[in-house]
Amino acid sequence: MMKAPPLLPEEIFQRVLRLARFDGLSIVIAASLCAVLAASRGDPVGAGIGVLIAGAGALELHGVTLLRHSDARGMTWLINSQYLIMAGMLGYCALRLAHPQLEPLHATVTAEMKQQLEVIGLSVDEFIELVYRMTYLAVSLVTVLYQGGMAIYYVRRREAVTAALTEG
Hints:
By secondary structure, the chain is mostly helical.
């Protein structure tokens, strides 16, 4: 089986633009919705983090605009936006883990769940704390993998994008 030829710099450039636009818009929309939901629940920290992350998504979109105007500095904006998103998410998770808010979660435990917890020897409080911690640790892990992966993707394509911009 023959190996496909490497992509031309222009093809890589177009892929980077499409992915960055989609990623930036997705982040702006999702983080904005989270900020509004947090604010409606009276959570100023959550709302602030949502606004910060939405702003980082906007920085990614700014990078796309720079690239579309043949400015190679756009790659730096794409890369740094990923680090800002990661820092915001990890900071939020660390804050929530350091200052857990478990009381509202007690209402989600049904009588059937309480019976099952008794069978396995966990109290409701232990169960809620375990699920809470695992959730924020999972969000942290996914954030590092996704945003870190995106940053690596952009770093590895910087040279090809710069070549496409100088050729075009």
